[in-house]
Specification:
alpha+beta; six-stranded antiparallel sheet; five-stranded mixed sheet; 13 strands; about 20% helix
Length: about 210
Amino acid sequence: MQTSATLDYGGLAPNGLIANLLVTVESLAGLLSFGLVSGLMFARFVRPVARVLYSDVAVVAPYRDISAFKLRLINQRTTEISDLAIRVILVRRQKDGEGREYIELELERSKVAFFPLAWTVVHPTEEGSPLLGLASEALRECEAEFLILLQGFDETFSQVVHSRPSYRAEEVVFGARFVNMFDQAAAEHGDISVDVALLHDVERAALPL
């Protein structure tokens, strides 16, 4: 241990050429091993991670004169995430049962300049949408799952961070909408704030025919 850690307490001393060569190899190996362990620990615990909290469920809610698939997320960090981009991909079993197909959903807004508070992601189920006319039972039958791919630039670490949650068919609530998270009392005084406790709350809403 004294040799590999290069502590040099003087308890042992090499005697002869072979012993000195062995100590040289052990000292180099000790320095490299400590450096390797330190690097791995640093990379593991300092790696930037997007601390984004998603709603427990996604909803199919009224949207203008149609309906829309929606999910909601908030930034758990005190720092902002800029250049935030999101993709929603529908994965479902093909009708012939031979495999699974991946369909990227077109979003009302797929990018935001910065992400300080909350964001409701919306996919209108209009003409051309794979969700048009589908009910909850149809999603379950085709074993549907919605993959969420999120990335943005974290200003604290000056690096791109990622987040990849998903929603299964049973985690999609039809005929519901998210409860308003914005604090109305604060808005009256010119402040903008959200109640994080309401992130997962939904209420019933009739879908357009």
